[in-house]
Design goal:
The chain is of the alpha/beta class. The chain has a single domain, classed as TIM Barrel, CATH 3.20.20. The strands form three sheets. The protein has a six-stranded parallel beta sheet with strand order 7-8-9-10-11-12. A three-stranded parallel beta sheet has the order 1-5-6. It has a three-stranded antiparallel beta sheet with strand order 2-3-4.
């Protein structure tokens, strides 16, 4: 295919608000009552799962609204743009904004499906995960398979089951996996767990070539300096305290040196912090590796790694510095980040992708392509093409489609 016009971009972070029928049409009859369903009663409209009520916040379905009209109060499906939950309407909204292809995170299941990890009934939880994935691949992305990129969720409570779900959905055409920025905050083992808890899932992601996408907030925890920190401060802090922390976590884990094809996407975390983090991690290894590799200092699992040969400096492969591991395995994603774009050469032009965040409040819709060109002004067309199109095509292993004849 010849180069696609730069009037189109690929968004690697959007969101879908699942229509009410997703689980009711796909769960076995005996689980329909406990499974996710919509109720409309005196308290308004809400999802109910295992008897627990969960309304949809207006901040999750803000597309088409003015900023001064954004509200965290509950919203009904009747009050949403159809593009929030209906795939053909989503394609129309994408065409209007110059979005060639889109990858969407879940809403009711939360960013990495942790709603079902918290289910009291594990059998129901697994069926809900599988029902969501089948719907995502067959119905949502099936409506426009060249334009909508399927991302799946996992039964995080069992990495062996998660590996099987990765393999099952990869065979159906899935291209990405939603994972947590910090599974420890979900009550699960961390990625440093000495038993290798996550290795079956990581190995399956490596073998299928499907990236692990860690959305800001997928730890179900908002970072704060104190319980009374203003919410605007929490929002400002999150990329630094959550996404940068996730990046460092993986750079000092055993997994990146071990799994050649493992890819990690840091979704909606911005990119301006990346040069400092890479530089800092390299500096720490250079300065601290001597004492940390000696016997009796067990705090540093990067240099005294588990499961390896402790006769060398740790058992983890130190032939690659953190900066090298980042360039090979990790991809930063941004919506609007002028400082980060100005540092793109230090980050790596092959390691950056753009997002539109439809239909959340941070979204650039309906001006996505215009904002993208403003953000990337001054860069060469070659770099713009990587950030807007070809990096995503390579990382998620999909062919860029021919753009529509005209934008709507």
């Amino acid at each position: 295919m010849t180069d696609i016009s730069l009037d189109w971009l690929v968004s690697v972070d959007d969101h879908v608000l699942e229509p009410p029928h997703v689980w009711q049409e796909r769960l076995p009859a005996k689980f329909k009552e406990a499974g996710p369903h919509i109720v409309n009663d005196a308290d308004g409209e809400a999802w109910v799962f295992e008897g627990k009520r969960k309304p949809t916040t207006g901040l999750s379905a803000a597309a088409g609204k003015k900023r001064e009209d954004f509200s965290p109060l509950p919203i009904t499906y009747a009050d949403m743009r159809p593009g929030c939950y209906e795939p053909n309407a989503r394609i129309e909204d994408m065409n209007r904004a110059g979005v060639l292809a889109s990858l969407s995170f879940p809403s009711f299941p939360r960013f990495c499906g942790q709603e079902f990890t918290e289910a009291e009934d594990r059998e129901l939880g697994l069926l809900c995960v599988q029902a969501y994935n089948d719907w995502m691949i067959e119905e949502w992305c099936g409506a426009a398979p060249d334009r909508l990129i399927p991302m799946v969720i996992l039964p995080l409570w069992d990495p062996a089951l998660a590996a099987k779900e990765i393999e099952r959905t990869a065979a159906m055409g899935a291209k990405a996996i939603a994972f947590s920025e910090n599974a420890y905050e979900l009550g699960l083992p961390s990625i440093h767990d000495r038993s290798g808890y996550w290795e079956p899932m990581i190995a399956a992601a490596n073998d299928t070539g499907m990236p692990l996408c860690m959305h800001l907030g997928s730890s179900s925890r908002l970072p704060s300096t104190s319980p009374d920190m203003p919410m605007l401060g929490v929002i400002a802090l999150s990329p630094v305290a959550s996404t940068a922390a996730a990046c460092i976590d993986w750079l000092f884990s055993p997994w990146l040196p071990k799994y050649e094809n493992l890819k990690l996407c840091l979704s909606e975390g911005g990119i301006g912090w990346i040069p400092y983090v890479i530089e800092r991690c390299d500096h720490v290894v250079e300065v601290q590796r001597g004492w940390a590799a000696k016997d009796g200092f067990s705090a540093d699992d990067y240099l005294k790694g588990w499961g390896g040969d402790e006769s060398n400096s740790g058992g983890l492969d130190l032939s690659a510095m953190p900066s090298e591991l980042f360039r090979k395995h990790i991809f930063g994603c941004f919506i609007e980040d002028p400082f980060g774009v100005a540092s793109i050469e230090k980050i790596g032009v092959d390691n950056v992708m753009i997002e539109t965040d439809y239909p959340h409040t941070d979204s650039t819709w309906p001006n996505c392509i215009e904002v993208a060109h403003k953000e990337l002004a001054g860069l060469s067309d070659e770099v713009k093409r990587k950030v807007m199109q070809t990096n995503a095509s390579r990382v998620f292993n999909f062919a860029l489609p021919e753009p529509p004849a005209t934008r709507q």
